[in-house]
Amino acid sequence: MRLNNIGYLLKEGFRGIFLHGFMSFAAVCVTVACLLIVGSFSALAYNLDIMVQELNRTSEILVLIDSSLSDAEARSIGTKINLLDNVLQSTFVSREEALEDFVADHDDDPAFSGVRAEDLRHRYVVVLEDNTKMEQTDEQLRQIPGVVKTDAAYELAEGFSTIQDVLHMVSAAVIAVLLVVSLLIISNTVKLAMYDRRDEIAIMKMVGATNGFIRLPFMVEGFTLGMVGAALAFGLEWAGYDALVQRIAAVDSLQLFSFVSFQELLIPMVMVFAAAGMFVGIVGSWTSIRKFMDV
Amino acid sequence: MIQFNNVVKSYEQGNNALNGVSMQIEDGEFCFLVGPSGSGKSTIIKLITGELKPSSGTIHVNGYSLERIRKREIPYLRRTVGVVFQDFRLIDKMTVYENVAFAMRVVGAREKEIRDRVPYVLELVGLENKLSRHPHEMSGGEQQRLAIARALVNNPSTIIADEPTGNLDPERSYEIMALLQEINNLGTTVLVVTHAQDLVELFQKRVIAIDEGQIVSDGTEDEEENTDEAE
Ligand SMILES: Nc1ncnc2c1ncn2[C@@H]1O[C@H](COP(=O)(O)OP(=O)(O)OP(=O)(O)O)[C@@H](O)[C@H]1O
Ligand SMILES: [Mg+2]
């Protein structure tokens, strides 16, 4: 296809958009709304994945040793811990070291100024191979003589995985429904444009224009609507995401949720929005063109 | 060249619109197609332009075999056949010039070719002074001239007109028919469907008469009268 034809086809495509200003506007708005929700779900799912990963990586079991045992006895328990199947690594932390950490954490708090090393227990920090078996391993650790207490966050980890699973399913469903909605509205806009120009289309066919040539302006129109919607939605998503993350960061009780910055999401987000915009634009116009051209 | 061989066309419901039509129109010929309403004239035209497929029989148009033409070849067939209708089918929001240029543009012509060719055909049909008019600002005769210019602009070897004078008074009708004859003199094959008996007699060209989907006579007016007498 020659260059001047491409110019013509692009011009015709854009003309269609302005010819049906209101319908195009409505199509872009619905697409923006749908893609915003699609984007938000994607962002949430992404963040949750990262949180769960983080949680899995950092989740350790703290094993506290009976304080009546001698230093040597306490250190010897490490061998037994290492014998367990699921233990990747265990690190002994003496009560003196634990005190240093404790003091460092509560530096300026006078309430803890009197804490001595003798008040604390020797401990092991145990890292697991497989976090999904945290509960069983925790049980086994507590069976070891000399272990008085363990501290594991497996309920939290499991809770997160459940949320993650549910969110993945809900996201997939919501994304599918919303993509279909924007697809339909773009399809309708293009159908309207084609109906409006049915006489021109008939003349094009009569003088021997190829179907590809007749189709292209409408493809351009649908594609542009999809991409404009995607670009607007992307901008709004970015602004909205940053605002939300800042708010969440400001609330102490929500410290548990750490959201990545939008910059970190930039590339996956650009891809999600571009793909969604292209998809609804091209497929949307294609479906109505298919119906229209077969007359 | 247009060649029909024992062509039958039946629509989904009802009788056969064409019932074994055979005819041949040579390159450069001028030919009238006449017959009562519902006899199958428009059906023949739609078969020639590939809008319909024959139910049986074979059709050859300008090198294409239409009984087995592929869908994607049809646009190229249509570039060899310019079509003119009773109702003009112009684009009202475009000017005279744009209406003709549009037909070239949508088959992928270069802008330079368009600038050279459009004024030439508009002059041929006598609209060189109305380039920036819109169709609704012109008489029926002028609109039909514009439609003829558009049919001609891609330089087809054949022009087909389905009742081109159906909406025009006798004088404009004569002018349109004279224009089609002039185009024929320049080498284009012309097939005109018409009800205008007086014009058919006046122009003394080959006449194919059809009734109830069958060709009932084929020849010049004189010969036709002769056969009538012989029967
Ligand atoms: N789309 C269609 N579906 C069913 N029957 C049709 C269709 N088009 C035409 N016919 C029938 O086919 C026959 C031939 O129709 P056609 O349009 O070819 O006639 P015509 O000679 O052009 O008539 P007119 O002079 O009125 O234009 C008629 O009986 C008509 O009713
Ligand atoms: Mg007819």
Pick out its properties.
heterodimer; A: 295 residues; alpha+beta; Alpha-Beta Plaits; 2 domains; 4 strands; elongated; B: 231 residues; alpha/beta; Rossmann fold; six-stranded mixed β-sheet; four-stranded antiparallel β-sheet; globular; disordered C terminus; binds adenosine-5'-triphosphate; binds magnesium ion
Plain-language structure description:
The complex is a heterodimer of chains A (295) and B (231). Chain A has 295 residues and is α+β, with helices and mostly antiparallel strands. Chain A folds into 2 domains: 3-55 and 160-292, no CATH class; 60-152, Alpha-Beta Plaits, CATH 3.30.70. Chain A is built from 9 helices and 4 strands. The longest helix of chain A has 43 residues, at 154-196. By secondary structure, chain B is of the alpha/beta class. Chain B has helices spanning 41-48, 74-78, 96-105, 111-124, 140-152, 170-185, 197-203, 221-230, and strands spanning 2-10, 16-25, 30-34, 56-61, 64-65, 81-85, 158-162, 189-193, 206-211, 214-220. The longest helix of chain B has 16 residues, at 170-185. The A-B interface holds A 1-2, 4-5, 8, 199-200, 202-211, 213-214 and B 49, 72, 75-79, 82-83, 89, 91, 102-103, 105-108, 110-111, 150-151, 154. Bound molecules: adenosine-5'-triphosphate and magnesium ion. Magnesium ion binds at residues 41-42, 162 of chain B.
